[in-house]
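Q: I have 365 residues here and want to know how they pack in 3D. Can you give me a structure?
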Amino acid sequence: MTRLPPQVQLEPHIVFEDVGKSFGGEAGDVHALSAVSFDVRWGEVFGIIGRSGAGKSTLLRTINALEWPTRGSVRIHGVNPAQLDENGLVALRRKIGMIFQHFNLLSAKTVRENIGLPLLVAGARPAQIHQRVLQLLDLVGLVDKADAYPAQLSGGQKQRVGIARALVHSPEVLLCDEATSALDPETTQSILALLRDINRQLGLTIVLITHDMAVIRAICDRVMVLDQGSVQEVGDVWKVFGAPGSHASRALLSPLRQDIPQDLAQRLQPAPSAGMSRAVLSLRYEGAHQRQGVSLQALSALGSDVTLLHGGIDRLSGHSLGQVLVSVPAATLLSSSSSSSSSLEPLRVATGADHLEVLGYVGSH
């Protein structure tokens, strides 16, 4: 199966409607999820992000009915798992593969045996198992490790085995439970590249949970931000990164943001004065108007004496977004009646920035 056409991708594959989940305890119910509603489209890579304890794992496990909602419903291709009998649940779960943070491989079995185990349990013939395992070993790049044991593999190789095992029943959905959290950065990138390649080749829907916005940026089409069991926002990754609409999103994005360098922050003064001859401006680009990138010619609207101090532009899903800090002669701003946001509006428009702000003033050196 190839990647689904755009019109199919827009259709909902998984639908959450007012999902709540509570766990009983001595101190009363613990509300892990509260009124969660969103959908996942066919063939997309959908990320669910939140801090520890946000309810991500509980939410993910409601998709394959490892957890049952206390309220509301989850539908997979129109099917509510709560309405299925035991045989129906088995059939549904075979359409939903799952990979885990700590791999969950059987140490006494080889790579070949670990991958083929679900087929063996399902009663497949040895020849079928052999053929399918070889296909998956080739897909994840581990043909030469077929007879190795988990203890002989690196963390990245173990996760590739986990991915192959999750695909053994040719699922429509792949769930990833913090699948790269136990891996080093380089291996994380290789696993994310593999998942994206699988998504493109097979057209299956991938739902992943993570606490790392860098993972969302690397692979996801859309993202849902979860905090204390509640949905904070859902949107295209470039939109959430460019203009986060919730406190939780901004907090999760803070490690990736281009903050003011400490040495510059220490020099900034709130108003121009003797010796404070340059204004420091922040120009932020949210991606909606920068499909072709940020024009350096547009920045010349700030004058000929512009110095780029800090920042950068990312490219996400065909949109350019980010922040740059520049300095200009204070006279450039003083020529306006003030440095209020209204008087800066012509400069913002001329530079093409979504937001332009005066951070302060510094000396020439």
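Q: Anything worth noting?
A: DSSP finds 14 helices and 13 strands in the chain. Residues 251 and 284 are 17 Å apart (CA to CA).
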